[in-house]
Amino acid sequence: MTARPPLILVSLLCPAARVTGEVPPQEYAFGFQLYQEDDDRIRVEAEYLRARIEVDDATAIRMQYLRDAISGATPTGALPGSVQPFFAEIEDVRRGILGAVSRQFGDHRAEIEFSRSEEDDYISRGFALTDTLELNQKNTTLRMGLNYLDDTVLVPGLGEREKRTYDGFIGVSQLLGPDTVVSANLTLGHAEGYLNDPYKVVQRTSFITLPDGTGGTIEIPVVNVYRENRPDSRFRQVLQFGARHYFEPVDAALDATLRLSNDSFGIFSQTLQIEWRQAIGTKFEAVPFLRYYNQNEADFFTNTIDGFPGTPSADPNGSGPNYSADYRLSSFDAISGGLRLSYRITANFSATAAYERYVMNGTGGAAGRAPDAAYASADIWTFGVQATF
Q1: Residue 11 scores a pLDDT above 90
Q2: What separation, in Å, do the N-terminal and C-terminal C-alpha atoms of the chain show?
Q3: How many structural domains are present in the chain?
Q4: Do 359 and 335 contact (CB within 8 A), yes or no?
Q5: What mean pLDDT is predicted for residues 252-278?
Q6: Could you say which DSSP state residue 366 is in?
Q7: DSSP assignment, residue 28?
Q8: Does an H or E element contain 20, and which?
Q9: Which pLDDT tens digit goes with each residue over 291-303?
Q10: 209: containing domain
């Protein structure tokens, strides 16, 4: 039997493959996603290329290239109907790369990962270390790790600012039987430095008093906007539970995930996601899914800073008072649902396609929610191809 010639990428990364002519197990994937908000708001076109190659029985490498382009209009934080613009046009391109190496040590699988992404006004450098331990005859899996991000933010008119993020996580999955698996994960994260969005503002109305020519006075309202001022640190706690059960009579599986998150901004959020994975024949799978998300507003969310003492700083550093009119920090819920399809073309190639509809709505009282026009609704289309050898 004639051995298959190695692929170019494999021969470069695995010199032994050039000698033996054997191809190590490998996976490749290309994907494209289009996110389009209603009313010609934000549009994101993202594409990625991923690869995973098992160099030998104990070692594997992963790589990813990502490019996404964003354009369109986004709420600034100013109120609709004021003299300040409610929407601002943005346009940017982000490119990112990731590389990881994993190694089996007995029952442990350790992985080290490096990443970097860059856009016009943001550079992110990342490092992650994870360990996966299989116990109880592989019926129990324990996973733990650390992540670190070192980011540089270019703030218009102010120059560069630094941001650092540290995350630690631990998770366990347990096989309860041949058809059921459950999992639980806890993540603790701390971010510090420049945590503002450099393009979000908050407005304040002041009044200029002038004589009216008859001995009286008139007041002329003046609407100004100022940079938001979030705290310079944030502590997050995220607890996630998951379960999957396979229903053999219908050849389908039900996935359910519950995610609870709390942070020092005062935001508590809940996410519930359900997926039904239905096999159709031997090559086709249909996955309808539904996701619900809810959060309360941050402690410092406000639509205006009318009545705040003093004049807000042009270069806020996180010290009080804190304020932001970013709708993403307000009280809202979001619901999304859609359908994901996959088809195995051959033993080595498969394709996927998905559509998702996403809708946000403000909740709670007027003080904790942004104007209705700030919340987005979007269509999300995803396409991908995968190759396994």
Answers
A1: no
A2: 17
A3: 1
A4: yes
A5: 98
A6: G
A7: E
A8: helix 15-20
A9: 999 999 999 999 9
A10: 23-388
Q: What CATH number is given to the structural domain containing 57? A: 2.40.160.40
In-domain check, residue 154: yes
DSSP, collapsed to helix, strand or coil, labels residue 112 as strand
Quick one: tokens of 178?
């041949």
Q: Encoding tokens for residue 369?
A: 């929610």
For 173-194, how does the pLDDT look when each residue is reduced to its tens digit (9 = 90+)? 999 999 999 999 999 999 999 9
Scanning the structure block, which residue is given the tokens 């550079």? 123
The model's pTM is 0.90
Residues in CB range of 154: below 8 A, 6 or more apart: 120, 121, 122, 160, 161, 198
Contact yes or no for 102/62 (Cβ under 8 A): yes
| pLDDT tens per residue across span 214-231 | 878 888 888 999 999 999
DSSP-derived secondary structure letter, 38:
G
- Does residue 80 have a cis bond before it (omega within 30 degrees)? no
Residue 16 in domain: no
Of 236, 239, 232, which Cα lies nearest the Cα of 300?
Answer: 232
Say if 8 falls within a structural domain: no
CA distance 122 to 194: 12
> Rounded distance, CA 27 to CA 114, Å?
20
- Residue 353 in tokens: 């396609």
What is the rounded CA–CA span in Å between residue 258 and residue 291?
Answer: 10
Q: Does residue 76 lie within any of the structural domains?
A: yes
Say how far apart CA 170 and CA 147 lie, in whole Å. Answer: 12
Output the DSSP codes for 106-124. TTEEEEEEEEEEEETTEEE
**Of 90, 84, 318, which is closest to residue 201 (Cα–Cα)?**
84
The answer to whether residues 205 and 223 touch, using CB atoms and an 8 Å cutoff, is: yes
